[in-house]
Amino acid sequence: MSVAGWLTEPLAYPFMQRACAATLAVGVAAPVAGVWATTRRLVYLTDAMSHAILAGVAAAALLGASLLVGGLVAAMAMALLVAVLVIHVRLSEDSAIGVAGQCLFALGIIGVSQSADPRALTHVLFGNPLTVTTADVIAELVVAGLVVLAVATSLPLLVATTFDAAHARTLGIRTGLVDTAVIVALGLVVVISLTTVGVLMALTLCIAPAAAARLLSLRIRRVLFLAAGLGVAAGLVGLMVSYHLGLPAGPTVGVLAATEVALAALVRSVGTRIRHTGRVSPANGRPGRSTL
Fold first, then answer.
1. How many CA atoms lie within 13 A of 107 on its CB side?
2. pTM of the full predicted structure?
């Protein structure tokens, strides 16, 4: 089978078309939010969020409501609880995230234990983009669009509060509200990952493409575009690989996203050596040109 046929054959099926659209939404939104999670050192928060959402999903399953809505409610509860503990109670960020995340995770485990069929929630943990409905795709595209739009419109504010928070506060910027907005964005990203890569793989898709992009560039705008591109590549290629090889989609996407970090590190290492060789000529110690 040709490469073109390998890529286009799955798209003949409507369920794969929906899966690709949903994966595209997650592949863009997750790394864009993940850039700020890595830069602001909120990786632990993203991990805790992915576990805390289980409480909302379990409650929705017991009530017969939408799992996406249940996950969204849990994510917002997590974000607000962390914000209250940090801003008003003055707990450290790690302590607040740990308390809120583990509390909601414990409630989720209790809810799953009360479910008539706990196995029905496994696709929430590990993802299954092949089962997404048109309504799911629309919801995920809308949420992803909101996350990207919010980052694009508030980029100067995010940069100011991320790289010089003390100066931002002297300018009257309420850094606590910006932190809360970032937490909410991360929660939304994890929620839209429910039916695609699953909540357990959402952390990888948030962090790995963002980390790879930061290895390739220091300019924040370029990092955002690179992270989104790498996220889409990991998502869509992982989906195709899982289709042809019969592998679970979520973990396949996660492995490819992690592989991108290794490749980015290799590219950076090679680029550093080339620049070093170009600056100094081994023969005479004077500036020389690269042979490439």
1. 16
2. 0.80
